[in-house]
Amino acid sequence: MSAPGKNEEALCGMVTHMEKMPRKQRRGDAGFTLIDMLFVVALIGLLASLAIPGLMKARGAAQSSSAVGTLRVLNSGELSFAITCGLGFYAPDLPTLGVAPPGSTAGFLPDEMAVAATFNKSGYNFSLAGTPLAGAPKTCNGLGAGMSSPGYATVGDPLDPTASKFFGSNSDGVVYQHSASLAPTMPESGPPPVGGPIH
Question: For residue range 24-49, what is the model confidence (pLDDT) as tens digits?
């Protein structure tokens, strides 16, 4: 049997050892305070308010570039139609450019551009029209005599009412830009009375 003094010594040693161990943090001491959270939220709000205008500007520039590219695709489709199928005359509308010529499985435009009189792409609405000429010949893709046109006009108007870039083109192949829609003034050939060419 061990002496009582030794047991007390051992017990005192254990208590001393436990006192030296770090105390666990209480639940109330952990985490963020309300001030910390408000600071983080305010910082995120400030960064967002600085980034959003730049993001919107970049988005507008990307949509404008895409609109110009789409008008060039329309011009290319019309030129291909005139050379290979229209005997020098142009398609009077978008659906005509979607009809494939004999021996081909694809039309002069991608399907999404040629299913209706207008189409939307990258934040813009596009339309194309040409005035039929009575003496125009039949085309190889089924358009009857007197239905193709000696020229055409195409426009791209933004869907966003606050946008300030409107585009148009015609059988000359030049893309024009203006601060308002070119639909009422775009001729089927030659420059419009308003706006300027994009170089």
Answer: 544 555 677 888 888 888 888 888 77
Burial (Cβ within 10 Å: 0-12, 13-18, ≥19) of residue 7:
exposed
Where is 168: in which H helix or E strand? strand 166-170
Using CA atoms, how far apart are residues 148 and 74, in angstroms rounded to an integer? 16
Q: Among 43-47, 52-56, 145-149, whose mean pLDDT is lowest?
A: 52-56
- Residues 107, 97 contacting (CB under 8 angstroms): yes
Does residue 151 contact residue 92 with C-beta atoms inside 8 Å?
no
Of 192, 113, 122, which Cα lies nearest the Cα of 163?
122
- Residue ranges of the domains in the chain? 56-197
Residue type, 48: A
How far, in Å, CA of 68 to CA of 71, rounded?
5
**Taking CA 94 as the corner, what is the angle to CA 92 and CA 97, rounded to the nearest 5 degrees?**
85
